[in-house]
Design a protein that fits this description.
Keywords: DNA-binding, Transcription, Transcription regulation
InterPro entries: GntR_C, TF_FadR/GntR_C, Tscrpt_reg_HTH_GntR, WH-like_DNA-bd_sf, WH_DNA-bd_sf
Protein name: GntR family transcriptional regulator
CATH class of the largest domain: Mainly Alpha
CATH architecture of the largest domain: Up-down Bundle
Strand content: under 5%
Number of domains: 2
GO molecular function: DNA binding; DNA-binding transcription factor activity
Strand order of the largest sheet: 1-2
Order of helices and strands: EEHHHEEHHHHHHHH
Shape: elongated
Structural class: mainly alpha
Distance between the termini: 40 Å
CATH topology of the largest domain: Four Helix Bundle (Hemerythrin (Met), subunit A)
Pfam families: FCD, GntR
Number of helices: 11
Largest sheet: 2 strands, antiparallel
Radius of gyration: 20 Å
CATH superfamily of the largest domain: GntR ligand-binding domain-like
Length: about 260
């Protein structure tokens, strides 16, 4: 069993340390979220291509011993992965990695795992294409339906972005708040259900951009244009401003545009 990998040695929230032999070491007191750490370790291997679709997992006893955890904890980790579409378990057939089209690629955890390594350029393009469909429409709805509290929340998020900068965790959290505030202002429940996925995509694409480029372009003017159009109740202008913001954000990634 491969060891629990972490980008640049960082420890994610809820994750436990590895002893370097694939075992999860959570110190003197075993964490009640140990199954989450195991699910993360396996999930990173799946989305990173270490485990491929169709690969069969070892037996439950063997796998739990490799991680140094109970069978119950390992079993719960597999349930988490199955809920995200990454694996399937069948009686007498064992547990296998599912085909990629069955993965819940917009699940916030799956997005996070995808960006722990070097995400595929095509996947990043796909994310921006999806955002290009969803977010400009959300901005147009927000411009037509927003109230003063919505505008205040967007402005507070922008103030924090300006104060901290997007190279910091605080600035990136403010960026996510800004985008979530837009979805809230859109007053559309099904669209709002996508807010956590979009927020996760914003977070990880921003972090990836800063990982690759030391001094990326200042995105604040683009966000301000979106805010100002929504505040002015200019639905068409808000749609265009967000589409422009996303075009520039994709260019910042340094990838070629799809044909």
């Amino acid at each position: 069993m491969a060891s629990v990998r972490r980008r640049r040695g960082d420890r994610r929230e809820g994750a436990s340390a590895s002893d370097g032999a694939g075992r999860v070491n959570d110190g003197p007191a075993r964490s009640p979220r140990i199954h989450g750490a195991i699910a993360r370790a396996i999930g990173v291997e799946i989305v990173g291509g270490v485990r491929n679709p169709g690969d069969l997992f070892g037996g439950e006893i063997e796998a739990s011993e490799a991680f140094g955890v109970s069978r119950t904890a390992y079993r719960e980790a597999i349930r988490i992965l199955a809920a995200k579409g990454l694996v399937e378990s069948r009686p007498k057939a064992g547990t296998r990695v599912t085909q990629r089209e069955r993965w819940n690629l917009l699940d916030p955890d799956v997005l996070a795992w995808s960006f722990e390594g070097e995400p595929d350029a095509g996947f990043i393009r796909d994310l921006f294409e999806l955002r290009g469909v969803i977010e400009p429409a959300a901005c147009a709805f927000a411009a037509a339906r927003r109230d003063e509290q919505d505008i205040a929340e967007m402005r507070a998020a922008l103030d924090d972005m300006a104060a901290h900068g997007l190279a910091t965790a605080e600035g990136q959290a403010a960026d996510q708040r800004f985008h979530r505030a837009i979805f809230a202002a859109a007053r559309n429940a099904p669209l709002g259900a996508l807010a956590s996925s979009v927020s996760a995509a914003v977070r990880w694409t921003t972090e990836f951009k800063h990982r690759k480029r030391m001094l990326p372009r200042d995105p604040m003017p683009d966000h301000l244009r979106v805010h100002d159009a929504i505040e002015a109740q200019d639905a068409q202008g808000a749609h265009a401003a967000m589409a422009y913001l996303l075009d520039l954000a994709f260019d910042d990634m340094g990838f070629d545009r799809p044909a």
